[in-house]
Amino acid sequence: MDDTTMIEADDVEANVAADDLVEAELLVEEISIDGMCGVY
Amino acid sequence: MSVESAPSPSRLVTELKRGLDAPICLTWELTYACNLQCVHCLSSSGQRDPRELTTTEAKQVLDELRDLQVFYINIGGGEPMVRRDFFELLEYSIDNGIGVKFSTNGAFIDADKARRLAAMDYLDVQISLDGTDALTNDAVRGAGSYDMAIRAMDNLQEAAFGPFKISVVATRHNVDQLDEFKALADSYGARLRITRLRPSGRGADSWHDLHPTNAQQRQIYDWLLAHGDNVLTGDSFFHLNALGDPLPGLNMCGAGRVVCLIDPIGDVYACPFVIHDEFRAGSVRDEGGFATVWKQSSRFLELREPQSAGACGSCGSYDACQGGCMAAKFFTGLPLDGPDPECVKSHGEQLLEGIDIGQNPKPGMDHTKPVRITLGAKVAQIG
Amino acid sequence: MPDTIPSTILDSGLELNPRVALRPEPFGALAYNYGNRRLVFLKHPDVVRVAKGLAEHESLRETLRACEIPVERWPSFATAFESLKSSEVVRER
Predict the structure, then answer these.
(1) Interatomic CA distance for residues A26 and B119, integer angstroms
(2) Could you give the CA distance from residue B92 to residue C61 in angstroms, rounded to a whole number?
(3) Neighbouring residues of B124: CB distance < 8 A, sequence distance ≥ 6
(4) In chain A, N or C terminus with fewer CB closer than 10 Å?
(5) What is the ipTM of this complex?
(6) In chain C, what are the domain boundaries?
(7) What CATH number labels C2-88?
(8) Residue B12 pLDDT > 90, yes or no?
(9) Beta bridge partners of B195
(10) What is the pLDDT of residue B236?
(11) Which chain C positions have a beta carbon within 8 Å of A27's beta carbon?
């Protein structure tokens, strides 16, 4: 996966439009227990 | 709280790689004692260590895990059922809201134990098996081990335990048996788990002969793509994702980030495949116990920093394979910021040619039983 | 826009599934269902607040209102709680 960093709190206002788009994505995400190496 | 002050929903993998406040689960090897001597044993088990955690100490660890809200533990060893307090610890864990999954060779799951296990809440059992016939399996796990495992499965089925897991380490000699493994699991209503062989523990000695060839890796990959939705892999094959469409899973190493290992003497390592000083984060016996190790150990904090692609940075497949498994690299003598020894583009293979195997890191712990020789009889030792 | 969301989930009286443990994390929370062994990430602290407030309010709509979630975000929350319902993290009362 790439190194996308978290959007800093300061930048949030400048990126409100981006936030809307991002929130149209997932606020919750199910993860398979089988989906991370080391998790049994 | 308004939207302006809260961060946006974060990319999941990014958050996981930064580490969680507590592990999702962790592997806890209860003992180094084992009735078997599998050639590839990741913990080099065999003999009990005199320093192993007492029942009281083990319960203290469980108390800590409860307070951290660890959801469940994955118990292993050695053979965990060898411990006299095995059921006591199981019950203590479950009573404290910590689920238990445990790995076993099945030797001790007789009809009575199977019934006892079937009666317990939140318990998953995983039986290890590395061949669909005694010849293939016992070559790796020892004479009688195939029968032992099958008997355990029969007993669990008889006791109406419900779905258990059959866990297989993919080797050069069982790659052609994947369909049969699936059929075996189906016949018990069990779930099949296929995992990657790492050169860890005794696995270091047998790895060069036992690990799948490049062609076999592709065979495994193709088979998993075809059967992926029904077969578990523990995300252990993400190094194969460079072959094409990614296998199901997050494609990430959880070591020190979402999981870790507690070994029988209370040492904490990044994962079960790196029992070595290099990856030791501390001990549950340290001041501050497990919680402090998880939250503050420098080794874990390092792992939670963004990792460098290093030599893999120029390879177009790094996003897919993430440079593979650090345990595989470490114990084959390869640098951690470079290709996996089983890199599907053979970048690792090329580097391995220059390595003197004798100089490779040795397992941090070795509890292999010494060979016993009896007068007038053949050497009674396997592997 | 709220008008285009199927009104069922917003009007539903919901509660956290009793078999679910909700564990705070810096980004939100982890929800683990001990019954079906499924793991769900609540990726925003606001979702966690709403999930915890569900039982105290008539409906999801009332909970969103009480938690001061702006109406423009309700579609995302409706989707999120539909998802939590199908993952069995929350259920109808």
Answers:
(1) 39
(2) 41
(3) B99, B100, B101, B102, B164, B165, C37
(4) N
(5) 0.89
(6) 2-88
(7) 3.90.930
(8) no
(9) B169
(10) 95
(11) 42-44, 46-47, 76-77, 79-80
